[in-house]
Amino acid sequence: MVTHESFVSKVINYKNVEFSRPYVFVSFMDNSAVGVMTLKYIIESLDLHEFARISSPYVPPVTVFAAGKLRHPFRLYANNSGTLVCILSDIPVDPDGYYEVTSTLLDWITSVNPKVVVNLDGVASKEVPEGPRTFAVGDKENLALLAKKKIPLAGSALITGLGGSIISESIVRQVPVMSFLTVTMEEVPDPDAVISNIDALNSLFSLDIKKEPLLDAAKKYHEELTKIMEEYNKVKSPGGKTPESMYG
Question: Which residues contact 59 (CB under 8 A, 6 or more apart)?
């Protein structure tokens, strides 16, 4: 049976990049958006450029329009020196294609001899988390680095989705790997979770990613959250409006 090339997952390059043992950061929109949000912030802050995409029958045929540009949903970015790569997908990949897409990605990743592959994932919380936000897991070598940099380790974790598949295949191929598990608010923007990721990445890899825009966003977020809680407490207090009448 002949398989048309359009039905095979592959990396399609737009530009040639000379890589120098890059850090490879990956995140996919299946478990949480916080990792993808973090990578988009890094891409913008460090002025990374798109150099390739993943073509696959397991990537839904959609186009993303963001920041005034039309984009493929599954993209690869790099810096000019070839020392940093970010791989992200704006939409979930069909789970039936995890093995094929993972194999395609790891074939490419191993070809650039990465220092480490870092998967950014999230754990949704219905309440505002207290204490550390980002926990990590990794292979033996990277556990030592995480401990040295005082990144909290997850006591136990089950990492699912395409990110989990990438980690599993990295271990099989003996590619250095670690994963972040960042606690993030469920279904609402959470700049604090992104800041937690940036702090960990800056500490581990000396990236010097600036946080000021995120800190401003976090401040506004907390101001809005405080107003909401104040209104909620007024509703709950004696003599306050009931939820049915609070907008009356």
Answer: 73, 74, 89, 91, 93, 94, 97, 101
Q: Are residues 156 and 247 in the same domain?
A: no
Give the domain extent around 91: 5-210
Q: pLDDT by residue (tens digit) across 171-213?
A: 999 999 999 999 887 767 778 889 999 999 999 999 988 887 7
Q: Do 206 and 217 share a domain, yes or no?
A: no
Report the predicted TM-score, pTM, of the whole model to 2 decimal places.
Answer: 0.84
Domain count along the chain = 2
Same structural domain, 206 and 228: no
Tens of pLDDT, residue by residue over 15-65, are: 999 999 999 999 998 777 889 989 999 998 999 999 999 999 999 888 888
pLDDT at position 23, please? 98
